[in-house]
Amino acid sequence: MPGPLVVQKYGGSSLADADRIRRVARRIARERAGAAELVIVVSAMGDTTDELLALAGAITDEPDARELDVLLATGEHQSATLLSMALHALGVPAISLTGAQAGITTDGRYGKARIAGVEPRRIRAELDAGKVVIVAGFQGLRGGSDTTAVALAARLHADRCQIFTDVRGIFTADPRLEPTARQLPLIGYEEMLELAHQGAQVMQTRAVELGWVNGVVIEVLSSFEDAPGTVIAEDPLVEQRNKVRGLAHDRNVAKVTLVDVPDRPGVARSVFEPLAEAGIIVDMIVQNVGHGGATDLSFTVPRADLGRAKRILEPILRTLGFRELTTDSAIAKISIVGAGIQNAPGYAARMFGALADAGINIEMISTSEIRITCLIAEDQVDAAVRALHAAFELERPDEMGEGAGAVGAAS
Amino acid sequence: MPGPLVVQKYGGSSLADADRIRRVARRIARERAGAAELVIVVSAMGDTTDELLALAGAITDEPDARELDVLLATGEHQSATLLSMALHALGVPAISLTGAQAGITTDGRYGKARIAGVEPRRIRAELDAGKVVIVAGFQGLRGGSDTTAVALAARLHADRCQIFTDVRGIFTADPRLEPTARQLPLIGYEEMLELAHQGAQVMQTRAVELGWVNGVVIEVLSSFEDAPGTVIAEDPLVEQRNKVRGLAHDRNVAKVTLVDVPDRPGVARSVFEPLAEAGIIVDMIVQNVGHGGATDLSFTVPRADLGRAKRILEPILRTLGFRELTTDSAIAKISIVGAGIQNAPGYAARMFGALADAGINIEMISTSEIRITCLIAEDQVDAAVRALHAAFELERPDEMGEGAGAVGAAS
Predict the structure, then answer these.
(1) Which CATH class is domain B5-234?
(2) In CATH, what number does A5-235 get?
(3) In the predicted model, what is the mean pLDDT of residues B274-297?
(4) CA terminus-to-terminus distance, chain B
(5) Interface residue of A24, A59, A90 to substitute, partner B, most B CBs within 10 Å
(6) Which of A188, A293, B73, B365 qualifies as a cystine partner to A235, CB 3.0-4.6 A?
(7) Does residue A229 surpass a pLDDT of 90?
(8) Which residues make Cβ contacts (< 8 Å) with residue B329, sequence separation at least 6?
(9) How far is A363 from chain B (nearest CA, A)?
(10) Is there a contact between B208 and B196 (Cβ–Cβ < 8 Å)?
């Protein structure tokens, strides 16, 4: 009878050079000595993807999407073959497979494809032949390796899906900003999704969604040390916790304000439809109710899209009759996330109070069932993280038994 | 009715950076404007293959052959996608295909695979859809892009197979060594094969063989200038030419001498069998007939294999009872090639005389039907090339009508 089936994903920083690849190979060899069946998903080495993008950019400003996908996929093929060679050198049978060879099909939308299905026959056959199976992680989706790993874990009914990265797990706040930030042993899917959406860079949101839908137990952990990570799973205690679980901040944001927008039907559509068509994601939206038949409309976009957003909106400015368009790139989002937030209005008041006490002005506010986000000046992010971490006592372990036996055993 | 079908192959130096890739794209766009159907075979950019080999070498001394093939293939995938992007940018519809997508199957011997077959349905469909088809050239064979191009030309019944490289064609000698060296408008397959075997680096020998067997008219030409190249085809006048057509030299060679080998049956097998098993190609072999029951046995190997050859032979030294093993890396081969050589013994005498007059000692000699090769000191290669070029009057055009209309029209 075979051992547990484990899917592991290693990110680009874990595979940045030959030494690190050999280190990952030694870790895999140890794991396999414990009789586990292993499917490994790899990202491209270090900066490979950026280098390939630069090369494509030197050829043409608008690379064909299909060709760009094939180009970027070569980065993952390279790290997959190199890891396989390193395992062979340790006497561990291994084989590298492209996404297609591994039976992964996508919906064919180049540049933003989603995994459409996984036919795991080939992977199963290679595992049965005693091999470690290494799958190139990129599936026509920038940074889609986490999603590949979770999709394979779901389809193969893996016992675990481990995401190896350069941090030890999910923390109550960015530990570089808040020294008392505490690693969470366990976090629920929904809370993780909000944290990821709001700027915690550790995992791709699509991967968390897919894990949630399929009930895949995910563990985020460091490839550079031997320490338990954070398990992302159904949190049986989530309803009772009723507590802020963590903070997230996001500096990759810019604010656009349309001043004196005429207050008539259809205006919002005229603004947001062309942005959506250009693939620009609009996040927070605030409309100040009218002063003399006109309003101010503010919203946020990813900072890298600000230039494009301006180029799209400025020609519409006159047609729609608004006065001017102002922008601000020196801003950031700060969020508190926790399953209990919706049912306890006190959290919003405590958040706004803590920010006010720290002298931090709130420019915009948005909320979800389990999250409150404030837009603040970028140079106040550090102060905001410290103020909120203290206000919600995040340095204190959860007395409801974080990392409870039942879930801890899955990691 | 479609225009002519042309297969073009571009080597790594023609695709070394973004500028060169765009230059190649412009050339293809011009060709296509002339209504030709185009299948393009590409090598990896510049030094990519060497860089990938170095990366694999940093992981392990003996990379798994299958994984190494997959790794190296990523180099050709990259240049194929980049060239396709460059064509798209010029408004030329194009698609890059891997070897497998292009329907090319190999015999699966990783590291030295041969093309087993070509099923051109996909290529045909893409051509019919009006696209330039770009095929990644590496097929599990180091430097196999020439062979890929010729195999595709054969299977697609292409009108031409053009090999674009960094030289203008086939010359009577290396023009860097002999300023009066003349470009040949036409050369027969068999003569080209001997030139390639004997060190003319312009084309891969396997590609010439495949062209010969399938009657593919090949043209070697420069991607850096607009000038006619050299056509490799059946030479209808070859029997009448009866003349040395060109010189080749090869510095990638080392000599091994086994001193005082016992003169008894089976000794040669004991020496050459283990070398063959190690994949070391032994070229020239000379055995000096005995002096007192023992002989000296000399042969040449590629210079890079000399260390391995020594390691293999030294343990056998005592068992076989030969006295010592000496080696010499400072040697080179110089060859004259021409279809008439076999029937005209005067050529050998003229070659040896010209070398003697130039003060060049001949260490070993080997011959084929259309070639005579001498082993000489490496530092005398330049002098030998000049002496032989003059002795055989290679600077003078062939009065039998080189580049005769019938063949010239094929280029």
Answers:
(1) alpha beta
(2) 3.40.1160.10
(3) 77
(4) 21
(5) A59
(6) A188
(7) yes
(8) B254, B255, B303, B306
(9) 43
(10) yes
pLDDT tens-digit readout, A271-329: 888 888 888 888 888 776 656 667 788 899 988 889 989 999 988 887 877 788 999 99
Residue type at B71 in one-letter notation: L
Specify the residue for token string 């990570």.
A229
Residue A69 is given by DSSP the state H
Report phi then psi at A149, rounded to 5: -65, -45
> Using one digit for the tens of pLDDT, what is the confidence trace for B125-146?
999 999 999 999 876 555 688 9
Give the other-Cβ count within 10 Å of A164's Cβ: 24
pTM of the shown model? 0.77
Chain A residue with minimal CA distance to B57?
A: A18
Six token digits for residue A380: 């106040």
At A60-112, the pLDDT tens digits run 988 898 899 889 999 999 999 999 999 999 999 999 999 889 998 887 677 66
| Pairwise CA distance, residues B135 & B248, whole Å | 31
Q: Where are the domains of chain A?
A: 5-235
- Chain CA centroid to CA A135, Å: 20
Give the residue among A7, A41, A25 at the shortest CA–CA distance from A137: A41
B406–A contact, CB cutoff 8 A = no
Q: What percent of chain A has pLDDT over 70?
A: 89
Mention every residue, 6+ apart, whose C-beta is less than 8 A from residue A232: A170, A186, A187, A188, A189, A192, A203, A208, A211, A217, A218, A219, A220
Subunit contact A21:B81, Cβ cutoff 8 A: no
3-state SS assignment for residue B236: coil
User: Of B247, B246, B249, B239, nearest to B342 (Cα)?
Assistant: B239
Whether B55 and A78 lie within 8 Å, measured CB to CB: yes
Looking at the complex, does the CB of residue B33 fall below 8 Å from at least one CB of chain A?
no
Task: Compute the average pLDDT of residues A167-192.
Answer: 90
ipTM here: 0.73
Is B28:B7 a contact under the CB 8 Å cutoff?
Answer: no
Residues contacting residue A63 through CB under 8 Å, at least 6 positions apart: A56, A57, A71, B85, B88
Are B63 and A52 in contact (CB < 8 Å)?
Answer: no
Q: Does A63 touch chain B (CB under 8 A)?
A: yes
β-strands A160-165, A132-136 pairing: unpaired
Q: Kindly determine whether residue B81 and residue A67, on different chains, have CB atoms separated by under 8 Å.
A: yes
Q: What is the DSSP string of A291-334?
A: SSSEEEEEEEE-GGGHHHHHHHHHHHHHHHT--EEEEE-SEEEE
Per residue in A211-229, is it b (16+ CB within 10 Å) or e — as a string? bbeeebbbbbbbbeeeeeb
The b/e string for A176-210 (b: 16+ C-beta within 10 A; e otherwise) is ebbeebbbbbbbbbbbbbbbbbbbbebbbbbbbbb
User: B373: which strand partners?
Assistant: B335, B366
Number of CB pairs, chain A paired with chain B, less than 8 A apart: 100
**Contact between chains at A85 and B63 (C-beta distance less than 8 A):** yes
Q: Give the pLDDT band of residue A339 (cuts 50, 70, 90).
A: confident
What is the average pLDDT value for chain B, to the nearest integer?
Answer: 86
* Cβ density class A320-336: b for 16+ within 10 Å, e for less: eebeebeebeebbbbbb
Query: What is the Cα–Cα distance from B99 to A268, expressed in whole angstroms?
Result: 50
The separation between CA A322 and the C-alpha centre of its own chain, rounded to angstroms, equals 36
SS3 state of residue B376: strand
**A152 vs A104: CA distance, rounded Å:** 9
pLDDT tens for each residue of A356-385: 999 999 888 888 878 889 999 999 999 999
Query: Minimal Cα–Cα distance from A102 to chain B, Å?
Result: 15
The answer to whether B55 contacts A95, with C-beta atoms less than 8 Å apart, is no
Q: B303 and B327 in contact (C-beta within 8 Å)?
A: no
Q: List the beta bridge partners of residue B336.
A: B247, B372
A chain contacts of residue B54, beta-carbon cutoff 8 Å: none
